Amino acid sequence: MSVPAPEAAVPQAGSEAAGSETAPGLRSGSLGTSDIAFFVVSAAAPLTVMAGVAPLALVLGGVGAPVGYLLAGLTLAVFAVGFTTMSRHVKSGGAFYAYITRGLGKPIGIGAALLALVGYNGMEIGVYGLLGTATQDTVAALFGTDIPWLPVSLLGLLLIGYGGYRSIDFGAKLLGVLLVAETGILVLLAGGVLIQGGANGLSLTSFAPGNVFVPGTAAVLAFAFAAFTGFESTVIYRREARDPQRTVPRATYLAVGFLGLFYAFTVWIVVQAFGDARVVQAAGEDPGGLFFAAITTYVGGWAADLMHVFIVTSVLASLLAFHNAINRYGLALAEEGVLPRALGRIHPRHRSPYVAGIAQTVLGAVVVLAFWAAGADPYSQLLLWVNTPGMLGLMVLQLIAALAVFRYFRTVPHQEGVLRTVVAPVAAAVLLTAAIVLVVDHLDLFTGASPLVNTVLIAVAPTVFLAGLPLAAWLRRRRPEVYADFASEPQ
Asked: What distance in Å separates the CA atoms of residue 473 and residue 267, rounded to the nearest whole number?
């Protein structure tokens, strides 16, 4: 990416020389493979996804639900092949929009940049509603006390803002601890079920074709794809990675592989906990309590109490991971000149994009307070109405990126193989199109909202993307230097 003139006081990405004379840059070489993987796996909030969503997948898809998560993981692994191959050729910090610009042109790239900014903000800001309700549920379960959700959400905004303000390695260490806690409690459940042999002995019935190819599998796949949202954000941390040519692809494969296998294994474990014949009924009767009942039975009530607490920390970890990703997108677009230059300032000690972080925290507070003032429900409206367009936006970006990878390698000389540059991106585009259709077709299961509301939620992503086209025309006409340098490689 080309860097603005010195008057903007924004250094080139990763340029220590520039940083020493003008302003500091991001802390290059801070993140290893596991650090980056912690960010993206934490963004997915595996414990929250399992305890909150997997029971619904079982109700809709039956005991074959674990396979849905494996299929979604395989699809996204195919996408990752072309995506990470392109990461070796594009070094800009803009990730999605940089890749799309290289493959499909600047107008589409600018539309993608807007969609990425709105998509990641939607994925993060809506979750403050979940933080409020999850904390309410935890306090009620442990102490029998009701608390209001708004103070919890506002406190969460401050905590996450502080986490983003600190250095990236501080965030990586914190997320590592929180991720071990939330996955550890599910591993504890798995150990209890495996040691005791489940309800009726361990069974592989979940993987039988007759239980996989059922009408409800389409709905399971929709839930499964949504559970991986954010895994592609590994490339956002390229500027802070050690040996990004290796760490970014490895972290991407590690994240998608771990999530796919862990999700499938955990859902299979809860099937064993209740038995093939009873799990669907149990999930239907009390979906929110399914995992808590299982861990109480096989480990103990104390473990259920811990699970309540770790769901809250799981939500906090997801918020911090998305907050860091948004800040780096904001930084990249500020350096491009598309967003105000002030958002490109980096903290001299922590080396974090702190101004972008402050702006994102303020935006989150405005949205949360607006929903509260309107009397909206923090879960069914703040979470689902804000989060769902974000999820759809990121899925659309994955599809456009797959097309961009294919187009890019048709237009530049390279030494990459056909599997990485043709087969994988084309297959990913087809599979991601099917995934988007599945999610849109079953959107009422995600939101529980009216057809009108769902139509509006679906329309957000294409509307934001299309808004980028006139913006690109305006930049080309009024700010030709910004348009010319958009998504260019760092010097």
From this structure: 48
- At residue 241, the 3 state secondary structure works out as strand
Q: Are 84 and 231 in contact (CB under 8 A)?
A: no
pLDDT score of 489: 75
Q: Which long-range contacts (CB under 8 A, 24 or more apart) does 375-382 make?
A: 377/129, 378/128, 378/129, 378/130, 378/132, 378/133, 378/149, 378/150, 378/153, 379/129, 379/130, 379/133, 380/447, 380/448, 380/449, 381/129, 382/126, 382/128, 382/129
Q: Could you tell me which residues come within 8 angstroms of residue 83 by beta carbon, excluding any fewer than 6 positions away? A: 99, 232, 235, 252, 401, 402, 405, 428
Query: H helices of 144-287, where?
Result: 149-165, 168-196, 209-212, 217-226, 244-274, 279-285
pTM comes to 0.90
pLDDT score, position 274: 97
Sign of the alpha-carbon dihedral angle for 83, 43, 243, 261: negative
pLDDT tens digits for 271-286? 999 999 999 999 999 9
Q: What is the pLDDT of residues 384-407, one digit of tens each?
A: 999 999 999 999 999 999 999 999
Q: Is the CB of residue 353 less than 8 Å from the CB of residue 330?
A: yes
Q: Which residue has the tokens 């949205």?
A: 367
3-state class (DSSP) for residue 200: coil
SS3 244: helix
